[in-house]
Specification:
This protein has about 425 residues and is an alpha+beta fold. Helices cover about 25% and strands about 30% of the residues. The strands form three sheets. It has a six-stranded antiparallel β-barrel. A six-stranded antiparallel beta barrel has the order 2-3-4-7-6-5. Strands 14, 15, 16, 17, 18 and 19 form a six-stranded antiparallel β-sheet that branches. The longest helix is centred in the N-terminal third of the chain and has 27 residues. It is globular and about 70 Å long.
C-alpha cells in the first residue's frame, strides 16, 4: 500500500512541478454518443478468472505503474526539488501509514471488486426492444432495482426502448422474459420496465450519488457490443460531477441532470447499465460517452438520486413528476448581444443579462405568465447571469415547487408571485 500511495502522491505533485509537455494533438470537437447497441442476436457468457484478475492488478500496481512513473519523476525533476518533495509530502504520508491512520490495501480493493462481481453485478440484465413485426430494433442494458412478490422492476435508458413496442429482459444464461414498459422520462432518458417471474433474482441497492467525490473508484457493468460480452465490468474513477449537456439540441444546456463523469470504459450496449461504487451500491445509470480521436475515458451516468426519484414516480404514475418544464424559448442576453443588434432589438438601458423570451409553449409552466419580448432576470432564487449558470442553479427545483419570477416588460420591473412549476406531462 505504501507503494500505491507513494506512486499517486509523486505522480500528482510531478504533474504540478513539471507541467504538460505538449505531446498531445490539438483537441478535436467531441461527439456525444449514446450507448445503445444495434440488434445482436447471439448470447454467450464469459467466466471470470479471479486469480488472473488479482495477479494482473498486483502486477500493474506494484511493478509497471509505480516503477515506471517513479523513474520518470526522478528523471524529469532535479534531485534538489525531489528531496524537497520527499521531505514535505511523501515523508508525511509514510508517517501516516506507519501510525496506522491509512489502512486501505490493494487486497481490500480487489476483494471489494470480486465481491461486487459475485453479487451486485448480476443485477445488470440485457434489454431488447422489438418492433411490431418482432424484429429487434435496439439492444442495451438494464438494472433490476426492485422486487415485489413475483414482479421485478428494471431501470434502463429511454433511448433503449423508445423505438420498441415489445420488450424482453435477457439473462446471462440466455433466458429471455417478456417485459412491459411502465413509463419513461424522455428528458432525463430513463425508462422503467417490469416482468413477472417466480425465480429469485438479485436486486440492486441504490446508493447516494449526492455524496460522491472526484477520485472515488467506480465500476461500470453492462453489455458492450452485444450479449457475447454479457456483464462486462470496467474499473475507473469519478472524473467530475454536475456535468451538463444540451440533450435536445436546442442550443441550451438542459436543466436538471448534473451527470457523473467517469473514466470506466463504456461502449455501445452499455446504455442503461450500472455504475456501482466499491460498496456495490448503484450510484448511476450509464447513458452517454464523448467520442473523438483525441478523447478517451469520458463516460457519463445519470446520478442515482435522480434516477431513484424518477423511477418511483414512473412506478406510481407512469411518467416522471420530477423535472419541471418552463416551456420557454429564449436568447441568453449575456452571450448573444450580437443577436439583438442583428435583429434591430433595443434592450432596456443597463440590461446585459437575462433571458429574452422568443416563445412560450402551451401547457407548460410559463403559459399565460410570460410573453415574447419579456426579459426574465430572476426565476426562483436564481438571479440569471447566463444560461450555463442558470442550468446548474435551477436544477435544485422539482415539480410542484412554488417560486417567484422577476421580469422586465415594457421597461418596467414586474414580480410574478406564486408560480407552481409543472411537469412535462400534464
Amino acid at each position: 500500500m505504501k507503494k500505491i500511495l507513494l506512486f499517486f502522491t509523486v505522480f500528482l505533485v510531478f504533474t504540478v512541478l513539471v507541467g504538460c509537455n505538449g505531446l498531445f494533438d490539438p483537441i478535436e470537437t467531441p461527439t456525444r454518443t449514446y450507448l445503445t447497441r444495434p440488434p445482436v442476436p447471439t448470447t454467450g457468457s464469459n467466466t471470470i478468472n479471479e486469480g488472473l484478475i488479482i495477479s494482473d492488478l498486483y502486477e500493474r500496481i506494484y511493478e509497471s505503474l509505480y516503477e515506471d512513473v517513479k523513474n520518470e519523476v526522478i528523471k524529469d525533476i532535479s534531485e534538489e526539488r525531489f528531496q524537497v518533495l520527499y521531505d514535505s509530502v511523501i515523508s508525511t504520508l509514510l508517517q501516516e501509514i506507519e501510525n496506522g491512520n491509512i489502512t486501505v490495501s490493494a487486497e481490500t480493493v480487489v476483494d471489494m471488486i470480486l465481491s461486487l462481481e459475485a453479487s451486485e453485478a448480476t443485477t445488470v440484465v440485457g434489454v431488447r426492444s422489438l418492433n411490431a413485426n418482432g424484429v429487434i430494433v435496439a439492444t442495451g442494458s438494464g438494472v433490476i432495482y426492485k422486487h415485489v412478490d413475483d414482479k421485478y422492476y428494471v431501470v434502463t435508458n429511454n433511448h433503449v426502448v423508445e423505438q420498441g413496442v415489445s420488450f424482453t429482459v435477457v439473462f446471462e444464461d440466455g433466458t429471455e422474459i417478456s417485459a412491459i414498459n411502465r413509463g419513461v422520462d424522455t428528458l432525463v432518458d430513463i425508462a422503467v420496465l417490469y416482468f413477472f417471474s417466480e425465480n429469485e433474482y438479485p436486486v440492486a441497492e441504490f446508493g447516494d450519488s449526492d455524496i460522491l467525490k472526484k477520485g472515488e473508484m467506480v465500476v461500470a457493468v453492462g453489455h458492450p457490443s452485444g450479449f457475447n460480452y454479457f456483464g462486462s465490468m470496467t474499473l475507473g474513477i469519478v472524473s467530475g460531477l454536475k456535468r451538463y449537456f444540451d440533450i435536445d439540441n436546442d442550443g441550451v444546456n438542459d436543466m436538471f441532470v448534473g451527470y457523473i463523469q467517469h473514466d470506466a470504459a463504456i461502449n455501445s450496449g452499455n446504455s442503461g447499465g450500472a455504475l456501482f461504487n466499491l460498496d456495490g451500491e448503484l450510484i448511476g445509470i450509464n447513458v452517454i460517452k464523448l467520442t473523438a480521436v483525441n478523447i478517451e475515458g469520458m463516460g457519463f451516468a445519470i446520478p442515482s438520486s435522480l434516477v431513484q426519484a424518477i423511477v418511483t414516480d414512473i412506478e406510481e404514475f407512469g411518467y416522471s413528476m420530477q423535472k419541471p418544464v418552463l416551456g420557454i424559448r429564449f436568447v441568453d442576453i449575456k452571450n448573444n448581444l450580437g443577436y439583438f443588434t442583428a435583429n434591430e432589438i433595443t434592450l432596456p438601458a443597463g440590461i446585459e443579462k437575462g433571458f429574452y423570451i422568443l416563445e412560450v409553449e402551451a401547457n407548460k409552466t410559463m403559459e399565460g405568465l410570460l410573453q415574447p419580448g419579456d426579459i426574465v432576470i430572476q426565476i426562483g432564487d436564481v438571479i440569471i447571469d447566463s444560461s450555463t449558470q442558470f442550468v446548474e442553479e435551477f436544477s435544485i427545483y422539482r415539480v410542484g415547487d412554488v417560486i417567484d419570477i422577476v421580469i422586465i416588460r415594457n421597461n418596467e420591473t414586474i414580480t410574478i408571485n406564486d408560480v407552481e412549476l409543472k411537469a412535462a406531462i400534464q
